[in-house]
């Protein structure tokens, strides 16, 4: 899922300062699961904004709404009437959702209420970790299902850097060394011979380094 965290209330007050009638628009999918932008968080942010704006004499008038997905026009349409009534929208979706709303309502100021951080999973209660950088050419099958791009701080593709201590990453001692994990996993699934294969330099054209990307499925186009 996409993981994001809330911007601070002082930041949001500054962003929204020129406006009076504001819609805080939540998204009911990824950002709900990572506890940053769903219905509950929309309610918390709205209350905090009302109080903070009153203290500063701005007196925001805030409406709240959460839709299933902000990155999908079918759901955006359900919010169209409410969005039209607002002076500005504070979206608590990921960056894709914010931009989808802004594209659909080109005359309306739409602001990001969250910092979108990474693609990851819930590892334990209150802890989300990055697992994929959407590089566009997945190589997980070569590394026992452990991504050396996101989970190795140096993106080592042909073995460890040699700096790990007690299974911990040299750069991020709070995280396990990805190559310790890769080795153990390949051993467990009896594929250690994969470590003898040399991985050529990665072609980053399929990643964001190759410019903005689009996925086109001719078989689904009308
Ligand atoms: S190899 Fe690329 S697509 Fe696969 S998990 Fe890693 S970053 Fe994501
Ligand atoms: S210690 Fe392990 S995870 Fe950290 S940079 Fe080196 S090889 Fe990568």
Protein model, in words:
The chain is of the alpha/beta class and 222 residues long. It has two domains: 2-118, Response regulator (Rossmann fold); 133-200, no CATH class. Helices cover 30% and strands 19% of the residues. The chain has seven helices and seven strands; from the N terminus they run βαβααβαβαβββαα. The strands form two sheets. It has a four-stranded parallel beta sheet, with helices on both faces. A three-stranded antiparallel beta sheet has the order 1-6-7. Strand 4, helix 5 (95-104) and strand 5 (110-112) form a beta-alpha-beta unit. The longest helix is centred in the N-terminal third of the chain and has 17 residues, at 39-55. It is elongated, with a radius of gyration of 22 Å. It starts with a strand and ends in a 34-residue tail after the last helix. The mean pLDDT is 97. Residues 152-154, 156, 160-161, 163-164, 169-171, 177-179 line the site of one iron/sulfur cluster.
């Amino acid at each position: 899922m996409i993981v994001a965290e809330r911007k601070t209330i002082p930041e949001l007050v500054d962003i929204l300062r020129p406006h009076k009638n504001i819609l805080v628009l939540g998204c009911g999918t990824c950002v709900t699961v990572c506890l940053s932008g769903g219905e509950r968080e929309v309610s918390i942010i709205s209350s905090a904004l009302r109080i903070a704006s009153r203290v500063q004499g701005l007196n925001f008038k805030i409406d709240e709404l959460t839709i299933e997905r902000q990155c999908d026009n079918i759901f955006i349409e359900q919010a169209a009437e409410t969005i039209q009534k607002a002076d500005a929208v504070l979206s608590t979706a990921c960056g894709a959702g914010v931009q989808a709303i802004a594209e659909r309502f080109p005359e309306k100021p739409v602001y990001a209420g969250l910092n979108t951080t990474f693609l990851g999973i819930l590892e334990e209660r209150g802890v989300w970790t990055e697992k994929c950088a959407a590089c566009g050419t997945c190589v997980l099958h070569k590394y026992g299902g452990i991504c050396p791009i996101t989970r190795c701080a140096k993106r080592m593709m042909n073995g460890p850097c040699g700096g790990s201590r007690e299974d911990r990453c040299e750069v991020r001692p709070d995280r396990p060394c990805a190559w310790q994990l890769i080795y153990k996993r390949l051993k467990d699934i009896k594929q250690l011979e994969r470590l003898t294969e040399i991985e050529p330099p990665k072609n980053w054209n399929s990643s964001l380094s190759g410019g903005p990307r689009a996925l086109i499925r001719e078989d689904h186009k009308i």
